[in-house]
Fold this protein.
Amino acid sequence: MALSMYDSSIPALKQTLGSLSAILKKAAEHAKGREIDPTVFVNARLFPDMLPLAKQIQIASDQAKGCAARLAGIDIPKYDDNETTFDELQVRIAKTIAFLDSVVAQQIDGSEERDIVLQLHETKREFKGKDYLRSWVLPNFYFHVTTAYCILRHNGVDIGKKDYLGG
């Protein structure tokens, strides 16, 4: 049996969001233990022209919920992108995972040839479902999760590959 679109997307997105949640918990504990204002981490960037931690997590969440919704042919939940604390980012991740849990395999399987259109500012991108997943969602999702990880690691949070991969 071939790997289904659901199995190629939702489990990996959920696992990685779970790892991201665990990494954020470690970052919050690190900040508290060292008496560092947590907003220092939430607003941290790897480089001045890169987005801060909060935005990296918001975009990873957007990629996950957008993927599930577009492949299932349902509305994408809208979030305000106003998280400024670790707790608020944790709520966002939990809401995203809950949404992914609400989408069942039957809604996504068979979406390989579904037309997906993204409007990105002035640019319109058109995909078939499988190409949207493989060449847009997964690379973007992992880029933003990895960048969030790197921001925290760069700022001294004791995390490693095992934390990133989760379990």
